[in-house]
Structures are given as structure tokens and as C-alpha cells.
Design a protein that fits this description.
about 150 residues, alpha/beta, Nucleotidyltransferase, domain 5, two-stranded antiparallel ribbon, 3 helices, 7 strands, about 30% helix
């Protein structure tokens, strides 16, 4: 608690009133000491693990990336399987052999699925479940930005 050293006199010359102002100097001192302690100890707290990474190999400019296998689902219920250039009509029963043929030809293990806006969710999930039941777990979804369409 601080004492008031000047001001209008009370009862006597030696009577000191109470000062209600907070003295923040000790608080600032403690904060600066803690800041210095954390600045000194922070670099010591980081762990480093030495890794021997292999050198990066530049891609051969003559090789083209393998085209992905795409399954297109239409609102009418038609299913098309193929790459971006060539597709063939399929149905839910013949879907797995068609997809496996495409995967064998293009050696790309991810299957992309594109569906029309109004395809029923149950139809979409039937295709996904059929793929997963046959052991194809790398499934990606193709999303197209339709915000500019009217």
C-alpha cells in the first residue's frame, strides 16, 4: 500500500493519507524478466531431428502424366467409365470389370467420380459402395464450380 506524501494537510503535519493509485512498476519489472527468460529458453526447447533426404529427381519432360479413370454419373441413371478422352457406357453390374480394365490400362490407382447436380445420393453411394466392396479404396470426387451458371 502506498502513502500520500503531499497534498492538503489533514489533522497534523505528520498525518499521511492513503494513496489509491496502483503502482505498476513491479508488475512491469516482473513481466520484463519473464520475457527475457522465455526468449532465452525458447530456442532450447525446440527439438531437431536429422533427416537424410534423397535428392530431388527432376521429372522427365517427355513423359506425360497418366490419365485418370473417371466414372460419370448422369441424372438419367447412365454410368460412363473411362478417361477424359474415351468413355464407354456401363451399368452398376458391369461397373467393376470396366473400372478394373481402365485401371489396368492406365495404371492409375485412383478413381475419380463426377456426378450430375441432380443425381440421387443413394445412386451415388451405390457406386461408391460397389467400388469399395471390390477393393478400390482410392476414390476422389470431381467438383466443378457452378456459381457462374444461371
Amino acid at each position: 500500500m502506498a502513502a500520500k506524501l503531499s497534498g492538503p494537510g489533514g489533522g497534523s503535519k505528520f498525518d499521511l493519507g492513503q494513496n489509491s493509485d496502483i503502482n505498476v512498476t513491479p508488475f512491469v519489472d516482473v513481466m520484463l524478466v519473464l520475457l527475457i527468460i522465455f526468449m532465452v529458453t525458447a530456442p532450447l526447447a525446440t527439438l531437431s531431428i536429422k533427416l537424410d533426404l534423397p535428392p530431388a529427381q527432376p521429372a522427365n519432360p517427355n513423359t506425360k502424366p497418366k490419365p485418370p479413370t473417371i466414372i460419370n454419373l448422369q441424372q438419367s441413371g447412365n454410368i460412363f467409365v473411362g478417361t477424359g478422352d474415351s468413355t464407354k457406357a456401363s451399368n452398376l453390374d458391369a461397373l467393376i470389370p470396366d473400372v478394373k480394365n481402365e485401371l489396368a490400362v492406365h495404371t492409375n490407382d485412383t478413381v475419380f467420380i463426377r456426378a450430375d447436380k441432380h443425381v440421387k445420393y443413394s445412386r451415388f453411394m451405390a457406386v461408391v459402395n460397389k467400388l469399395q466392396d471390390s477393393g478400390i479404396y482410392k476414390i476422389a470426387l470431381i467438383l466443378e464450380d457452378l456459381s457462374n451458371e444461371t
